Amino acid sequence: MAMNETEKRLLFVVQKHAARRLHYDFRLELGGTLLSWAIPKGPSADYGVKRLATRVEDHAIEYASFEGTITEGSYGAGKVIVWDTGDYWPEAEGGPEPQTREEAEALIRRKLEAGKLAFTMYGKKLKGSWALVKIRKEEAAWLLIKHRDEHANPDLDILEDGRSVVSGHTLEELQ
Ligand code: MN
């Protein structure tokens, strides 16, 4: 492992959230906070499928490990599990490969500003190359797309495994 390999990692988390409507909260660490998108249908391992991902407010980095119940009357009331988590890293796409966390974060900011971020995920469920692509004219609307690689699988429903990668509980089993 290269020097500072651990330090330069960036975290992602996908929380399955049984709010008024079930959705998956897709969160990427950037600048010490969690950029967040709500994905009603959840991620798909099929490279032919584009999933709507609506940008929502950033969350505190501490929220990445949250699993439990948001109390009735609060925004997003309902149960939450950590459906997947791990590291992610931006893809250079022909540009210079980011060597440090700072370079990676600068690249991510540029790509998000331009409306397309390609990145590699090192999760337990989500792996390989993915992209977030902004839908023009709609500020908050993005698409989450799986790139065609060895981790793409049109025949696999990755949502079938509804268990938390932390506790092993499904939303229903969560107390
Ligand atoms: Mn949510």
Write a short abstract of this structure:
By secondary structure, the chain is mostly beta strands. The protein has 1 helix and 9 strands; from the N terminus they run ββββββαβββ. The protein has an 8-stranded antiparallel barrel with strand order 1-2-3-4-9-8-7-6.
Describe the structure.
The chain is mainly beta. It contains one helix and nine strands, in the order E-E-E-E-E-E-H-E-E-E. It has one helix at residues 101-114, and strands spanning 10-18, 22-30, 33-39, 50-60, 68-70, 78-90, 116-123, 127-134, 141-146. Bound molecules: manganese (II) ion.
Which residues form runs of ≥5 with pLDDT under 50? none
* Sheet having the most strands: 8 strands, antiparallel, barrel
The number of distinct helices, counting runs of at least 4 residues, comes to 1
Number of strands: 9
List the strand order in the largest sheet: 1-2-3-4-9-8-7-6
Bound molecules: manganese (II) ion
Shape descriptor reads: globular
- Chain-averaged pLDDT: 94
* Helix and strand pattern: EEEEEEHEEE
As a percent range, the share of strand residues is 35-45%
Q: Please give the radius of gyration in angstroms.
A: 16 Å
Question: Distance between termini?
Answer: 39 Å
